[in-house]
Amino acid sequence: MTMKTNEHAQYTHLTVELVPTAEDAAMLQKTWDAHKRACNRFSQKFYNESLKGKNKYKTWKTAYASASWLAKGKKGGLHAVYGHSIVDIIKKAYKRNEQKGKLELILFGDYGEKNTKSSAIHFCWESAFQVDFTTKKCRLDLADGRRTIAFSIPSKLPEPPTSWKIIRAYLKLVYGSWYLTLTFPNPTAEMKAEQDTNVVGVDRGELNIATTFSPAKGAHSYKSIDYPRPCKGSTNDNYHKSLFARDVHVASEVVENEPPYTIFILEDLYFEKPIEGWSYRHFEDVLIYLAALRHQGVFYCAPYNTSITCPVCGHVEKANRLHDENRFICQNCGYGADEIVDDDENAARNIYNRGKEALEKELSNKVGA
Ligand SMILES: [Zn+2]
User: Fold this and answer.
1) Which of 132, 207, 324, 338 is 20 to 30 A distant from 16 in Cα terms?
2) Cα 278 to middle of ligand 1, angstroms
3) Rounded to the nearest whole angstrom, what is the distance from the C-alpha of residue 329 to the centroid of ligand 1?
4) What residues have CB less than 8 Å from 110, skipping those under 6 apart?
5) C-alpha of residue 113 to centroid of ligand 1, in Å
6) Where is the Cas12f1-like TNB domain (predicted)?
7) How many degrees, rounded to 5, is the angle at CA 246 between CA 278 and CA 356?
């Protein structure tokens, strides 16, 4: 995993939902199953090699040759181009394994399935996918050949400008629905802070989907209860869709509440598993996308201890945050003891401070150069 701390968001993503015919769906499923099977077989090979101590699949060429064969193979049924996707997925998965300091066999399953990783199919080559926003159709290189499938853009999300170029696509199956996440280079990635740039810290959470902080406007919470909530009894598919719709709602309001050329600061978070009902990553994707359309940028700061750091004296302690009361009280200087300081607002302020500091450093480097 690469940390993005003190970096501008380089890419922006838009997830569209496929509207497959029954025949399309059958082919998507066949491709998905074949890809999953090939991932699991290559994972076993990669794991066995790692056990030996010297893993020949760490060389790209060897890995690609093997994965392509597994994809194509006798039973593989996929185009060799899928080897790229498989190697991408396995390398990333085992890198995280390494960072945790223990080697475990990684198995791939479907979204929400226990003890497995769910992974999107990576379309890395332009020849493997084409997306047309005029006709709302995409052409994907699937198991039995190329297929043109209709898609829809989630409501409230504008279409990307025609000048934006899609560089990758990721196919996902989530509770029976097919999604295609499109990746574009972020046009505001090069936007640097100036002296008078409006900088806004954004904390993400469960109770408050987002809490923003800037010196000009202070703190503002986008409370989960203020948005249409997923009904408890609904299917996983509907529940998941309503969470995504809520992310779009909140992210739209966050960007619309700030002028163009604002820089939003987000924590550089990484989660091993999707957290149920807590779609951090999707909110981030939508925020970056909507911000980019408004000439606003996103900058990442280090995520450590933002919720337990005292913005007054800098003291870091777990006990500073009173989870049950959603309150912050510094155990060292007593900040928050007399007047109530909301814990999420405090985190947003810390995120702002960290981002602002890093941006100022960037600015002084630029001035010095
Ligand atoms: Zn303090």
Assistant:
1) 207
2) 30
3) 8
4) 36, 116, 118, 173
5) 43
6) 280-351
7) 70
Distance 312 CA to ligand 1 centre (A): 5
Tell me the pLDDT tens digit for each residue of 289-338.
999 999 999 999 998 899 999 999 999 999 999 989 999 999 999 999 99
- Ligand 1 centroid to Cα of residue 330, in Å, is 5
Look up residue 331 and give its two tokens.
């155990």
User: CB atoms < 10 A from the CB of 62, how many?
Assistant: 14
Cα gap 260→293, rounded to integer Å: 9
Alpha carbon of 336 to those of 205, 310, 343: distances in Å?
Answer: 20, 9, 10
CA of 7 to the centre of ligand 1 (A): 28
Place of tokens 């290189």: 141
- With beta carbons less than 8 A apart as the criterion, state whether 49 and 56 touch: yes
pLDDT at 152 over 80: yes
Across the chain, mean pLDDT equals 91
* Domains present along the chain, CATH in parentheses: 1-185 (no CATH), 199-368 (3.30.420)
pLDDT value of position 277: 46
